[in-house]
Amino acid sequence: MNPEAELSRGASATRSLRKEERDALDQQPLSLLLDSQVLTFREWCRLNRISGRTGRRILASGVGPIVTQLSPKRIGITVGANKRWQQSRERA
What we know:
2 domains, three-stranded antiparallel beta sheet, 3 strands, about 15% strand
């Protein structure tokens, strides 16, 4: 077999394994949530039971919770900011 094809197949298997690992982590309950704890974007979406697409739309609209920039390409939301955002969205 062609060595490039083997490398390609190996990379595909690695990506699929990573996805399986992420999915398994998504099924685990979140730890005790402290107000200063920073949730990843995925954890925040999971906590609020929304899809990633809906989460991005909420944040882009400007009415979402305060975002913490973790790195140039990574964001998070503190548990306290999420609580305040949820309270601002409550209906009477």
